[in-house]
Amino acid sequence: MSYERAPRPALEVLSSGNATGRPPLIFIHGGFAGAWCWEPNFLGWFAERGWECHAPSLRGHGQSEGHGDIHRFGIDDYVEDIVHLSARLAGPPILIGHSMGGFVAQRYLERYPAMAAVLMAPVPANGLVGAGVAMAANAPGLFWDVALAHEFGRRAPSPAMLFEAVFGHGPENGFSDYGERLTDESHLAWGDMCNAGFLDTARIPDMPIKVLGGDGDRLIAPAFIRSAARQLGTQAEIMPGLGHALMLEPGWDAVADSIDGWLIAQGF
Q: How far is CA 165 from CA 35, 118, 216, 252, in A?
């Protein structure tokens, strides 16, 4: 299958808070999601604590343009979306990326300036293959449903299984509105994340980087979150009682507290 790079579409950006002299925060969502995943909790919480916050929907996601071209978009296209947003801000940002968004953030850091980065349940720099093999061994039903979703779209597998994989809870626990917002994900971006040589962390300059994840994450298990941290020369923080959607699950406030406290400790 061949792909060509698509032109840059218009992006949805959710913003909260005002410029205060601190670096702006850019929240980068993961696969199947959009800027909406940051809105219920993180955007307002961080804005109330004096942060200028921006959450884009990457092309083909959320309310951004490009849904019909989703499979033409790769990780570098998503990086261009963050570059485009960063250029509108007063200075280099702090990136907060979740899952695929953590992979996008690492690619950005190879090439563009940032003040710091927080990677939440990130896809490791050496790719998804190891995490996929572990999932296939430990949760084969989940593995095949996620694979079906990537290949044929989010509605191809069991909706309840995919929903539980992403959010750590079944839809009966009050998350059904979020599940309806999930989109398809790019085959090209998925291929980039399975390529062990796609990222080169040696090209990321020395800067503050925090890596964290949930001890119940069934998509990016704690072992792979720790591996992602080691590749970046740091140690992961594993949050108890949490799964993959760290910004939406009960206990999200502990994640936000940890990130905010770490940023303050770095002098921001």
A: 19, 22, 10, 17
Give me the domains of the chain, ranges plus CATH numbers.
Answer: 13-265 (3.40.50.1820)
Structure confidence by residue, pLDDT tens digits, 119-144: 999 999 987 765 555 454 555 555 54
Q: Residue 204, Cβ neighbours under 10 Å: how many?
A: 22
- Residue 256 near residue 45 (C-beta atoms within 8 A): yes
- In this structure, what token pair is assigned to residue 64? 């951004």
Give the integer Cα–Cα distance in Å for 218 and 222: 9
Global pTM exceeds 0.85: yes
pLDDT in tens, 101-119: 999 999 999 999 999 999 9
Residue 164 token pair: 């539980």
| Integer CA distances (angstroms), 137 to 26, 108, 132, 141, 218, in order | 35, 32, 9, 10, 12
Chain mean position to CA 128? 14
Rounded to whole angstroms, the Cα distance separating 20 from 39 reads 20
